[in-house]
Specification:
globular; alpha/beta; about 220 residues
Length: about 220
C-alpha cells in the first residue's frame, strides 16, 4: 500500500514538542539578563520557527552590532537547557503517531528553526536518532520561511514536491511549503493561531496529532 505522499516533513517546536512556553520564557529570561526591553509572551511566541539570529533581529530590530546577539544566544541557550532538563514532553499522540506513520511506510523528516546542536540534543533525549530519514536546521541552511531546507530534504530523498507533505504550527512553515507548491498541514495547538495559518490554504487543519495520522492512513491505497 502507498500514499501519494511518500515523505512527511515535520516542524519540531510547537508541532511535535510542547516547547512553545519554554522558548518564550527562555527568551524573556535572556532579555532580562542583558537588561533588554521585555516584550510580551505573544511577541516572543510569534518568532518561534525562525532561526535564532533571525528571531532576535525581529524581536529587537533597533539593536545593531553582533555582540548583543552572541550574548543573547548564550543566555537563551542556558535558560532553554534548564527547561530541557525538566524533560519537555511531546504533544499527546505524537510518539505513537510517528511510529504508526513509519510502520505504514511513510518516510519521516524534520525541518526546524532549531540549531543542529539543539535538535541533536532533542533527538537524543527522545531516543529518536534513527526515526527521521533526514533533518535540516536553520543554522546549516536558510532560515524559514525560505524554502531551502525543504529543497534539500527533497534532494536527499529524491522526491518531487507533490510527493511530500509539510506539517507545522507557524506561518513560516506554511509559507515555505506554499512557496514551492508543497502541500501543508496546519496544527492548531502550537505557536501561531490557526487563523494565521489558514490563509496558506493547508490541505488539512488538525487539533490533535492523531487526526493527522488517521487522515494519512486513509490516504493509503493498494
Amino acid at each position: 500500500m502507498k500514499s501519494s505522499y511518500q515523505a512527511i516533513i515535520f516542524d519540531w517546536d510547537g508541532t511535535l514538542l510542547d516547547s512553545t512556553l519554554a522558548i518564550a520564557e527562555s527568551l524573556k529570561e535572556a532579555a532580562t539578563d542583558l537588561q533588554l526591553p521585555i516584550l510580551s509572551r505573544n511577541e516572543y511566541q510569534n518568532i518561534i520557527g525562525l532561526g535564532l539570529s533571525e528571531a532576535l533581529q525581529t524581536l529587537y530590530p533597533s539593536l545593531s552590532g553582533g555582540q548583543w546577539q552572541i550574548e543573547m544566544r548564550e543566555r537563551y541557550t542556558y535558560h532553554f537547557r534548564q527547561w530541557e532538563q525538566k524533560q519537555l514532553a511531546c504533544f499527546d499522540g505524537v510518539t505513537q503517531g510517528l511510529s504508526q506513520l513509519r510502520e505504514a511506510g511513510f518516510t519521516l523528516a524534520v525541518a526546524t528553526g532549531k540549531s543542529r546542536q539543539g535538535l541533536n540534543r532533542a533527538l537524543a533525549a527522545k531516543s529518536w536518532d534513527d526515526l527521521f530519514e533526514v533533518t535540516r536546521c536553520a543554522d546549516e541552511t536558510h532560515s524559514k520561511p525560505h524554502p531551502q531546507m525543504l529543497w534539500e530534504i527533497l534532494e536527499v530523498l529524491q522526491l518531487q514536491t507533490h510527493q511530500a507533505l509539510m506539517v507545522g504550527d507557524t506561518e513560516f512553515d506554511m509559507a515555505m511549503a506554499s512557496d514551492i507548491g508543497m502541500d501543508c498541514v496546519a496544527v492548531s495547538y502550537g505557536a501561531h493561531h490557526l487563523d494565521r495559518l489558514q490563509k496558506y490554504q493547508p490541505v488539512l487543519c488538525v487539533d490533535h496529532f492523531s487526526e493527522l495520522v488517521k487522515w494519512l492512513q486513509k490516504s493509503l491505497v493498494v
